[in-house]
Every structure is written in structure tokens, then in C-alpha cells.
């Protein structure tokens, strides 16, 4: 077994360990991440009647509209599953895909096969590559951990904007509690609606302005969610979602080709999770994903431990290929990448952030909800 795995104290129940400073253990040696997840899983449990209610709400709101919901499709298993179920429930979705220039060919094929077999409309938002590259470059230079903040932020913006444009109130996401319900440790990720952080980092490390990149900040969230009443739904939660079963179903129904690992539908995501995160930040996200599968009874802990014994990239050939692709696409030399890996991490908050603003507004919102409940 990998030696480094034993250097850290790890949970008795899942794979989370002290590579995150945010972990605490109870008297049984169980960590806060799996303990919280078990509560969350219970709280988000959905019944058949919850699903019926949701579908009839979507249908009734969507009357006389071209589409009644948006389904964001990355090409990954979770979002493809969400789209299949939406169609099976008799909904009329507009599938939305965002292309940040790093899509894997496999993902492209999976999306087009699925769209064809379901006969739904697809809107692909292509992000200006030069601009995106410039933003990624700035994030790399800033030595912040969450480079994928750019993708996640833009994806939210694109989905909400389109929903608003077509007057659609429901965004059905492939995000789900069953495979993603573990909270990502705060020191592994950054607050995703942080438009200010993106602007500040870009201003500091780039001489180009943000022109077309679809930013999404706290006030955008308030506008779309509270004023426009657009709802972001974790759709697979309504179907007792199990990853393996979903892959099988997708393979049968739309000639889906599975990925070797979670989030590997995008080459940058793959290189980020498989190379940059472990080598520069000492973070192996497999611990989180596999723990999630263990606690939701989708994988045996021994099997997960066996996977953890393997390197993040299953073979060096793939790692080499992705590294070369990254260097070519970012126009970096090998030396530049080496230097980057060596430089120390800087916190996102150092550059300016709207996380505090979000936290304060969120607190007010929760309190208002409590008051509303008290007074009926
Ligand atoms: Zn745990």
C-alpha cells in the first residue's frame, strides 16, 4: 500500500484523512465528513410522491412554453442520467452544454449519441478559448487551489441565463447526494459563486479584460433564485441514484462509453485532479469520491482501498499524454510546469472575495426563514 497513505490519520469508516485540515474525529474514530453525509442523505431522501409533485409542477409551469426545464449536460454519467430521466418523465428539456475548450472526445461522443437517441434540443455554449485560457493562466499564476472555479462559475451563469431567457423555472442538474453528497473540505475547494475572486485574480495576473466570460456572483444568485424563482434541482436524488446501474443503463440506451474515473469527461479536470491537485496541493480527490460511494453502499471499503493503492493516473502513458496536451494547449514549457508545482499555495481570499458577503446574506436569509416559520 502507498506509504503516504499511512502518514495521515484516517477515518474508521470512510477514506477521508488528515490531508484536509478540516477533519475532526469522534470517539469511534468516525470523521465529520461521513457523519454529516449520513444526516444529509437522510434529509434529502425523496419519495415517489415527491417526484410526482415535482414533475407536475414543472409540467404545469411549462405549459405553452417551448421547453419546461433545462438539463445541464457535461457528458458525465450523472448529467446524462438526469437527461434520460427527464425525458422518461415526459418533460420537454432543453439540454445545455458548456464547452470550455477542454472537452474530451469521449464526452463529445457521449453527448451527441444521447441527444440523438432522446431527440431533444441541445444548446452548446462555447466559451471563447483565448479568454478562457487567459483566465486559467491567471489562476495558475495566482497559485490558488480551485482552478475549476472558472468552469463551475461559468456553468452556473450559462444555465441560469438560459433559463431566464426562455422563461424556464427549473434547472435539473446531474449533481446528486448519492455520489457527490460529501461536502468537499473547505481547504480543497473555493466558494463557487465568487465572481469577485475571478475578477480580482484576472486583474492582477493578466493584462486582458474579462469580455465574454459568463460570470456568476452572489447577486446573480439572488436575482435568479429569489427574484426570478428559478430552482436548481439535484434531479438524480429523486431516483435512488446508483452510479453503476446508471452506467449500465446509459450503455444500453445510448451507446455510452464509460470513463475510467469521475469527472474525467474533461481533459483539464482530469489533469487537474490527477496531476496538479496531488502534486502541488497534496490533495487526492478520490478519497472524497470513493468515501461517498462507500457510505452510500455503492462500494466496498476494501475495493476502495485497492483503488487507492494505484496511482491517480492508472498508467504513466495516459499521464504523459495529458501532460503534453496541457503544455501544448497552455503554451507552457516543462520547466514552467515544474516551477508552478514548486510554488507555494496562496489562499483565494488573499486576492479579494465575496465569500463573506455570501455568508452574511445567507445568515440573514436563514433567520428570515425562521421568523417566517414562527409567524406562519
Ligand atoms: Zn469518515
Shape, principal axes of CA atoms: globular
Major sheet: 5 strands, parallel
How is the largest sheet built, in terms of strand order? 3-2-1-4-5
Number of domains: 1
Mean pLDDT, to the nearest integer, reads 94
CATH class: Alpha Beta
Oligomer: single chain
Q: Give the termini separation.
A: 57 Å
Report the total helices: 17
Describe this structure in words.
The structure is a single chain. With 376 residues, this protein is α/β, with parallel strands linked by helices. It has a single domain (47-283, 315-366), classed as Rossmann fold, CATH 3.40.50.620. The chain contains 17 helices and five strands. The protein has a five-stranded parallel β-sheet with strand order 3-2-1-4-5, sandwiched between helices. β2, α5 (105-118) and β3 form a beta-alpha-beta unit. Zinc ion is lined by residues 11, 13-14, 16, 30-31, 33-34.
Q: Quick summary of this structure?
A:
The chain is of the alpha/beta class and 376 residues long. It has helices spanning 3-6, 32-43, 48-62, 77-88, 105-118, 129-141, 149-165, 177-180, 195-205, 218-227, 243-254, 267-281, 286-295, 301-309, 316-330, 334-342, 355-374; strands spanning 69-72, 93-99, 121-126, 170-173, 231-234.
List the helices and strands and how they pair.
Layout lengths: L2 H4 L25 H12 L4 H15 L6 E4 L4 H12 L4 E7 L5 H14 L2 E6 L2 H13 L7 H17 L4 E4 L3 H4 L14 H11 L12 H10 L3 E4 L8 H12 L12 H15 L4 H10 L5 H9 L6 H15 L3 H9 L12 H20 L2
Parallel strand pairs: 1-2, 1-4, 2-3, 4-5
The protein binds zinc ion.
